[in-house]
Amino acid sequence: MAIIEILKAIVFGIVEGITEWLPISSTGHMILLNELIHMNLSDAFQEMFRVVIQLGAIFAVILTFFKKLYPFSRKKTGDQQKEIFQLWLKIILACIPAGLIGLLFEDQIDELFFNYKTVAATLVIYGILFILIEHRNKKRNCRINELSQMSLTTALMIGIFQVLSLIPGTSRSGATILGAILIGTSRSIAAEFSFFLSIPIMLGASGVKLIKFGFNFSSLEIAVLIAGMMAAFLISAVTIRFLMDFIKKHDFTVFGYYRIFLGLLVLIFFGLIR
């Protein structure tokens, strides 16, 4: 029994590691997966688990971009350290809108919007937006091609777009990447900054879920949580590198079509079984 639950956790971690970073909505995939693979653990634990396994994904971001995010290396010049501190200021500023609204209204948002119809709708709507925006951007030149070119105002605007991701199915990376591209940021910088924004946001969300759940875990729950986090970490590391290589030669249109397909699949799947 324990081995089966751990294997289920690994599957959840794999799906988390892929869908958290690609702009295709981890929530949409998780609700489908939860219908197909249901853990024999308490509902409270499963709700916490689906959020806290994101810690593994966060560690993958930190490891992948450590040199860009860590300012205290002796190999860095004063100007390089200053630039990293400025980057962290942009990250923190951009996280304030979603962090504040999420903290204040998380329960209300879940109650109102955490249902398959909302998830399906947001998957399709943002899928269409990705296609339209990428088509529009073919004739535009990006004005922000380096993180150092991003102003505090631009960072805050991207952070406001991140608020949209509080609605299930939107995709945090999808909302921030779309917003950044609309503002004039290149795809690679939009994706990179989206990864960085995940660190405080997902750390905060995981912390809140852990506090609400409490720290009285059974040995099986600990094993399941570790297995899910490790799988999320390993797959995230591969997915992040894949996406950064992918967008050097391609745009996000393919993810738009995939979102539309997944949204329709969610609608049909739950429409048939409910």
Structural notes for this entry:
The protein is mainly α and 274 residues long. It has one domain (2-273). It has 12 helices and no strands. It is globular and about 55 Å long. The model has no long low-confidence stretch (mean pLDDT 91).
Write the layout of secondary structure elements.
Elements: H1 2-19, H2 26-36, H3 43-52, H4 54-64, H5 66-69, H6 78-113, H7 116-137, H8 152-163, H9 172-183, H10 187-213, H11 219-246, H12 253-273
Task: Tag the structure with descriptive keywords.
mainly alpha; 274 residues
Distance between the termini: 29 Å
| Strands, total number | 0
Separate helix tally: 12
Judged by helices, strands and strand pairing, the structural class is: mainly alpha
The largest β sheet comes out as:
none
Compute the average pLDDT: 91
- Overall geometry: globular
Percentage of residues in DSSP E strands: under 5%
Order of helices and strands: HHHHHHHHHHHH
The poorly predicted ranges are none
Q: Give the count of structural domains.
A: 1
Helix content: over 70%
Query: What does the radius of gyration come to?
Result: 19 Å
In short:
With 274 residues, this protein is mostly helical. It is 77% helix and 0% strand.
